[in-house]
Each structure stands twice: as structure tokens, then as C-alpha cells.
Amino acid sequence: MEYRRPQSYEERFLILSSKLERMLFRVAMVGFAGIVISQIVLSVPEIRSVLSAADRLEGQQISSDKTDSGTSTAEKEITIRSLTDKPITAWVKINGVPVAQILPNGVRIKVKKNEIVEIDTSSLEGIYRFEIDHNDPSITYPTPGILVESSQTHAAVLKPILVQD
Predict the structure, then answer these.
(1) Which is more confidently placed, 127 or 68?
(2) Is the pLDDT of residue 14 over 90?
(3) Any alpha helices (H) in the chain, and if so which ranges?
(4) 80: which DSSP letter?
(5) C-alpha 163: how far from its chain's center?
(6) How far apart are CA 36 and CA 47, in angstroms?
(7) What is the pLDDT of residues 45-64, one digit of tens each?
(8) Does the pTM exceed 0.70?
(9) Which of 34, 102, 140, 148 lies at 20 to 30 Å from 18 by C-alpha?
(10) Under DSSP, is residue 101 helix (H, G, I), strand (E, B) or coil?
């Protein structure tokens, strides 16, 4: 009979920890592979609609990347007010075209779906704040009361105007 010396605590610990480490590494790799595979599968719209109820339960889509990406002809009205005490000469541009100058009591402009509204204060020094307001529930962006900032080097841009059909 061959005599084996008893293993020390450190030797038993090293054997156990190496087995446990290999097992945990395998579990982590299987989990990572599962995440990658599930994301690849969920990137296919037909499969995603079957596996995930989130798309079906989200409600009406209002983003600008709908299949009918044309702009709506319905005009909506928004109000832009300066939050500074002194009168300023800022211009409101729609799709890069100046349409109105902001007066001390504000300006009302007509916008359509997917238009880009810009407040240009490039001729003024300093930072200016403006409040965008409207009472139309079909306009989903900009939200009523949103504040934007503009300066000599940075125009305030609202893009795009989102209107719920």
C-alpha cells in the first residue's frame, strides 16, 4: 500500500478554486454568447414581433422615420418668446430661411411637420434664452414651455417639429 501525504489546506483550496474558476468562466461565456445571439435575433423585425410584446404595446409611432416620411401640409402655430429684459434682434429661421424677427413680446410662427426651426442670435454677444410655447396637443415636439439657449456662436435649433397624425 502506497502512502500519500495529506494535502494541505492551500493545495485543496487551489484545486477547488481552479475548478470553480473554469466553471464560472464557462457560465460567463455562455451568458455572453446568449446575449449576443438574442440581440442578433431581436434585430430581425419579424422575429422581434413574435418574441417581444414591447413593439405591439408602445402605441402610435410619432417619430419622423415613419414609412410615410413626407411632410404634412397642415400648419401649426408656435410662439417664441425671449426671456431677456432688453430688446434683441434675433431671427427665426425655418429650414435655414429667415421667416420672422423676435419682438419684445415674442413672435408667432407657422410650422409644418418635420421642419427645422432655428433661432439665430449670431449678430449679438452673450447668451440668450427663449421659451417655445403652443397650445396644440398634436405637436409632440417641441413640448410647451421648453427653454432653449442661443449665443453668437451657437444657434438654438428645434429639430424636427413632430406632429402626431
Answers:
(1) 127
(2) yes
(3) 9-42, 45-51, 54-57
(4) E
(5) 17
(6) 15
(7) 888 878 887 776 666 555 44
(8) no
(9) 34
(10) strand
Instruction: Please check whether residues 51 and 109 belong to one and the same domain.
Output: no
Residue 38 lies in a domain: yes
Report the C-alpha gap between 122 and 135 in whole angstroms: 29
Structure confidence at residue 40 as a pLDDT band (50, 70, 90): very high
Q: Which residue's entry shows cell 485543496?
A: 12
Q: Do both 155 and 105 map to the same domain?
A: yes
Cα distance between residue 140 and residue 60, in whole Å: 12
Residues 68-75: contacts with CB under 8 Å, at least 24 apart: 69/114, 71/112, 71/113, 71/114, 71/115, 72/112, 72/113, 72/114, 72/163, 72/165, 73/112, 74/112, 74/113, 74/163, 75/110, 75/111, 75/112
84 and 122 housed in the same domain: yes
Task: Count CA atoms within 13 Å of residue 90 on its CB side.
Answer: 34
- d(CA 26, CA 11) in angstroms, rounded, equals 23
How many domains does the structure of the chain reveal? 2
For residue 24, pLDDT over 60 is answered with yes
Q: What is the mean pLDDT of residues 7-13?
A: 90
The mean pLDDT value for 66-82 works out to 70
Q: Please, what sign has the CA dihedral across residues 148, 151, 154, 157? A: positive
